[in-house]
Write a structure and sequence with these properties.
There is one protein chain. By secondary structure, the protein is of the alpha/beta class. It has two domains: 128 residues, Aspartate Aminotransferase, domain 1 (Alpha-Beta Complex), CATH 3.90.1150; 249 residues, Aspartate Aminotransferase, domain 2. The protein has 14 helices and 14 strands. Helix 1 runs antiparallel to helix 10, helix 12 crosses helix 13 and helix 13 packs antiparallel against helix 14. The radius of gyration is 21 Å and the shape is globular. The chain starts with 5 loop residues before the first strand and ends with a helix. Bound molecules: 4'-deoxy-4'-aminopyridoxal-5'-phosphate (PMP). 4'-deoxy-4'-aminopyridoxal-5'-phosphate (PMP) binds next to helix 3.
């Protein structure tokens, strides 16, 4: 039988058939006219999806960590001070990455499941001389969302560049780079952008590009150096070609298809759909009597949900049963609470039907674990949100 399990982890996600068709099309030369057009169009569409009309997009083969690296390598010089707004595993990663380029890194942390307050961030920035502040929009290890708009405003006021790790957010969570004053946002293809894994996606705003151009030292990472990639992006956008490294031809073509689908839906409709599905998911989890890692609704992401296992039920008990019921979910990631929770991704092309299937499979799994609950309570709670 065809593998019809629904992949509902926080990336990779389920991809649109048209995107998969582009992946499976015969690979052309990277200088073929059709590919030049697709690459050029993808660069233009990135600006629209990131809501940054004057930004410089970079599309480079690699995972989301390379996107983080592109920002770090090009914006940090040895001795620069960087502030990491740390809401979990990926904040730790960003701090380690920046330190590798010689940054003096300060982490501002909150208890697991929470985020540092704007007041605490302001105090840290005021004390600081920071060149750059990183913010993880949604930390995939905790499901906590940060207030990027408020944080970017503070960074701007204190003269720090605001770099947003939007790997679990871009094209799902509301993110308005230009309006909010975000200087760089980055993501990976396999999440809400809706393209198989393998592309690092960055949009650098004017202040970030100015900081790059004002560097006094060479970029320490040869592959990531914007001096190598900027001429390539400019050439493809001008519908010509320049070579540095062979582009991931099929992935770029697939990305262009996916960005087209995203823009056809419209960014505001897309954000609203993600909010509705998330609200339904969280209502269902609550109705089943399960807690969540984020300490409140206000700090919970809309691209994913991080429910806690109920007393007496483990990952090994529940997730294989949910999978047998047709839905693949992810275990925990944050090292300190890894065994205490699981993760549901609901981003990209996710529909109301997908979410009801997820909740139904969780209920089936919980029942098989002998967890006591009112059968159908989760599905009913989700349907109620959809009906409202
Ligand atoms: N940042 C965040 C918030 C992520 O969720 C991830 C991936 N889960 C990454 C960075 C790293 O991306 P990748 O695994 O594609 O390198």
């Amino acid at each position: 039988m065809k593998d019809r399990r629904l992949l509902m982890i926080p990336g990779p996600i389920e991809f649109e058939p048209a995107v998969m068709q582009a992946m499976g099309a015969p690979t052309t030369s990277h200088i073929a006219p059709n590919f030049i057009e697709a690459f050029g169009q993808a660069i233009e569409r990135m600006r629209e999806v990131f809501l940054c009309p004057d930004g410089q997009p970079f599309i480079v083969a690699g995972s989301g960590t390379l996107a983080m690296d592109l920002a770090g390598a090009n914006l940090i010089e040895p001795g620069d001070k960087a502030l990491v707004i740390n809401t979990g595993y990926f904040g730790d990663r960003y701090g380690n990455l920046l330190a590798r380029y010689g940054a003096e890194v300060t982490h501002l942390r909150a208890p697991i499941g929470d985020r540092p307050s704007l007041g605490a961030v302001e105090t840290a920035l005021a004390g600081g001389g920071f060149k750059l502040m990183t913010v993880t929009h949604v930390d995939t290890s905790t499901g906590v969302i940060t207030d990027v708009e408020g944080l970017a405003k503070l960074a701007r006021a204190h003269g720090a560049l605001c770099v947003v790790d939007g790997v679990c957010s871009v094209a799902g969570e509301t993110l308005r780079m230009t309006d909010w004053g975000v200087d760089l946002a980055l993501t990976a293809s396999q999440k809400a952008v809706g393209t198989p894994p393998g592309l690092a996606l960055v949009v650098a705003g004017p202040r970030a590009m100015d900081a790059f151009k004002a560097r006094k030292t060479p970029v320490a990472n040869y592959y990531a150096d914007w001096a190598n990639w900027l001429p390539i992006m400019e050439a493809y956008e001008a519908r010509s070609v320049s070579y540095f490294g062979t582009p991931a031809v099929n992935l770029v073509a697939a990305l262009n298809v996916s960005l087209g689908i995203i823009l056809d839906e419209g960014m505001d409709s897309r954000f609203a759909r993600h909010q509705l599905v998330s609200k339904a998911c969280k209502a269902a989890i609550k109705a089943l009597g399960l807690g969540q890692v984020p300490v409140s609704d206000a700090v919970a992401a809309t691209t994913m949900t991080a429910p806690r296992f109920p007393e007496g039920v483990t990952k090994g008990d529940l997730l294989p049963r949910v999978k047998a019921a047709g839905v693949v979910l992810a275990g925990g990631l944050h090292p300190e609470i890894k065994s205490e929770y699981f993760r549901i991704g609901h981003m990209g092309s996710v529909s109301q039907g997908d979410l009801l299937a997820v909740v139904g499979a969780i209920e089936t799994g919980l029942a098989a674990c002998d967890y006591p609950f009112d059968t159908g309570a989760g599905v009913a709670a989700a349907m109620e949100v959809f009906a409202s």
